[in-house]
Amino acid sequence: MPALPAGNRPPDKKYPRMDFLVLFSFYLALLLIGGVTLCICLKTRYLKGLVRGGAQLFSAHVQQHNITKNHTFIILHLVLQGMVYTEYTWEILGYCQELDFSLCYLLLPYLLLAVNLVFFTLSCVTDPGTITKANEALFLQVYEFDKVMFPKNGRCPTCDLRKPARSKHCSKWLWMLQLRPPQQHGCVCVCNRCVHRFDHHCVWVNNCIGAWNARYFLIYLLTLTASAATMAIVTTVFLVRLVVLSDLHQETYVDDLGHSQDIDTVFLIQHLFLTFPRIVFLLGFVLVLSFLLGGFLCFALFLAATNQTTNEWCRGDRAWCQHCPQAAGAPSAEPRVYRNIHSHGLWSNLGEIFLPAAAHYERKKK
Length: 366
Description:
It is found in: Cell membrane; Endoplasmic reticulum membrane; Golgi apparatus membrane. With 366 residues, this protein is mainly alpha-helical. 55% of the residues lie in helices and 7% in strands.
């Protein structure tokens, strides 16, 4: 283990002070400015034309090679997860054992990893609830139509099926790029199916999230967030314990002007970064990942508790008025706003996620 400065070090010892935090902040600012610039440019016709042209080339490539599934993001997901756990095992585990950390505490991320991989696999391979001619009539009985977002007797122009309430046709790439529907320009879609209780298409599991695999996806997201947060906590505790044991926070250093200064938080972080660069970088990565995944998890739990899907939430604030197709021919009709008619209390809503078959048969009996 790299040695930290010992206690009672003479105050005239010079420590190199690097302004890497300023440089790192400058780097983040450049990324932010670049992202904002890209978002502004996306509104221009020129860049939209480039995106549309690139999407058409991609679609032509799909047609030529008959691609039906793309496992790139699955491979990327597993590679990133493997790299994080390799760094954790190589850099953190041995040090923590030397500092007498509890073994159960250190092995918790591996337990979460095992559970996460199981539900990741289930999210990838489970049918989300594909609607076909054979089960079309059955799915039509599950949810009632709200006559606003999901009109009765609506049909999917691609599948030529009656659309059950809360269903959606997933065409993955083309809809994400907001291009015209595939039947208008002949492009091949990767999913190209109607999904019962469609939530969204997740590229990380290369599958739609619908009625039959939403429970697996929710547990996958929960364990993924918990594993990132657990590794962040273990790494933070490790670094804090090192600082306390070495009394580094009580040391002083001589600045560039020759003045003796107490070690502040910035200097302490810089020293830890210089001493354990890979560990500090890992900590920063899993912290950012924990916040991002935690935010998405909270959003997913909110949707589950209120019996909404991501698709419905994104479209739910629209005011449907006399200009909408559903209200065509009725110019005097009052504006209609979508309201969630499927929420029946917290436990009933969660039951539809974790026991979709039971909820389906219960509704069918009624």
